[in-house]
Automatic annotation (TrEMBL):
It comes from the Bacteria. It holds the Pfam family SBP_bac_1. This is Sugar ABC transporter substrate-binding protein. Residues 1-26 form the signal peptide. PANTHER family: ABC TRANSPORTER PERIPLASMIC-BINDING PROTEIN YCJN-RELATED, ARABINOSE-BINDING PROTEIN-RELATED. Keywords: Signal, Transport. Belongs to the bacterial solute-binding protein 1 family. InterPro entries: Bact_solute-bd_prot1, SBP, TAT_signal.
Amino acid sequence: MTNFSRRTLLAGTGAIALVAAAGCSAGGGGAAQAPSTTVRITLANHVWTENVKKAIPEFEKATGLKLEITQLAEDQLSDQYNVKLNAGTSEIDVMMYRPLQEGRLFAQNKYFADLTEKAKGDAAWNVGDFQASPMSATTHNGQIVGIPIITEREVLYYRKDVLSKLGIEVPKTLDELKAAAKKIKEAGEMSGFVARTGKSPAVTQFSSFLFSMGGDFVDAAGKASVNTDAAKQAYALYGELIREYGPANVSTDMSWPEAMAVFTQGQAAFYTEADSLYKNATDPAKSKVSDTVGFAQFPAGPGGSKPYNIPSWALGVNAASTNVENAWKFIQWATSKEQVAAQQKSGIPGARSSVWESADGISSYPTDLAKAITDSAKVGVDHDRPVVAQVVKAREAVGQPIVDSIKGGDLSASVETAQKAFQAVLDAEKK
């Protein structure tokens, strides 16, 4: 922790002592209650969590606060939030959550404390250093309700040796990607392309195709827009790439582990996927092609290169917490430039622009991946799925045309069915 950070945190601790003294001097039932020096934090099982736990003793020493950590698997975490937050519990101060999975629901249910004043009022911490898209995803109705801790973008994974052998340039457009995948498939050595195929898992990776084609899940008026020309073109292209140039007899239930396995076993030359998963492709213990993998920004469509740039996890404060000030102290520290830089060096991509712009911040990343990430962050979209409270229903609805396109089914009929189903989800949320 830097001297500046230490002074900032100690200043906060001094404020706690002052509040406690005031409470004692007032006497009687009207005495102010000092915030607890124990901050109760609920975190997901994640490498980020393991990293931050190692640094907690330093935080506790600097502040005099005690962190009480509850660590859960994702499903357990969701179950606990559903029960405790709905009951208005004050037993949770800080919560690690998924902005695009449960963020809208939590915000609508008023589970979040408003952090806007704290975030914007701390010049040293500097909220302006956070990338715009991830911060947009943790802002609801103009209120900052969470701070991004882990980000990801969709990038193009490719086989450098295969492209070199066949004289193919790294695709910069989706048309070039299609032509290159076709050429590789026809060469007979391997598939040209692979990606997620499962109805719900594929939605997030399909989203960058949709955005780059000039579309989105909803239009400017908030209506479903998965039957527009741009959406139809995106569904058609995604399906064609896998159906015509992907693995033979490809299944339509692949999530990222299965799609990644196809790529890392040397069975496909191109793969679009989240950059946060890159070590699965570059680790020799996991990948047969680790020394031949290259990375590039997501190829551009008619709408430009529009990959998602989203926070997969963030930290928020429980609105029912009686310890908001000290909860913010933890978030302030955990998302400080120093902590983000340390996390990023271990392979956890953060949301601070200054860290990505520093040589130290990108030192652990392949050079071409670091460039793809920084370039993508400048043009990225703040969501990779419909931004609704009923995320599961929405993904099921808009994901069905992906499967139908891969199978070569009636895409026109499929998108119209998806349009109606998704609009029903949107309508239900307005009631």
